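Reviewer 2 asked us to include a model.

Predict the structure of this chain.
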Amino acid sequence: MLKRISLIFIIVIIFFSTIYFGYGFYYNRELRQIKNELNEIENVEVKNIWGHEDLTLEEISARIYIKNKGEIVLNNLSKDVYDYPNRIEISEIGGLSFIDFSCVNSIGIGSSIDIGKNSNLGKLIGKEFKTVKDVVKNYDLILKTLKNLKQSPELNYFESKNEEEYLIIQKVKSKDKDPIFNLIGVENAFEFAKTLKWKNCDCKKI
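Predicted model (structure tokens):
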């Protein structure tokens, strides 16, 4: 009887262990794939990679080091949000990080910038990036463009047809985690955003 109970117990342990480790393997499969693809780019080394933990691992980001240049943090690399060349988000480059205040119909706050082809910064850079490899190749151009803008505590202001944007560029290392968590203290940032001079009436009223 004891042998039978022991055998059933062992089978149950093996069953649940298989489920646990199998789920972990598939859960992180896209992350491993992205990491391998990044490491295959010439002169690139992945320093860290992470994602937003949900039922699936989403919105994958990576901190990579480019030989003889520096580090850049690339966001939205997973297939659920990847949208090159239209939207390309980075949250750090060359030691610079960002606080972005935007207004469409309400105020938005973010810790990354968009260098996609239709963005304000993308137009300033003047080059379309179709792949991560293109971003890596043009690291110096992107960094030079950002360094030529106003640096913290000064604000950069951009206006397009449907959006207004204030950007703070600061010499602060961002934390390697889900970008939303780089906005701890967002209540204070939101209060600050309400003091900015918005042309959009919807943002003036907030």
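Residues 2-204 form one domain. Residues 18-26 have pLDDT under 50 and may be disordered. We have added this to the supplementary material.
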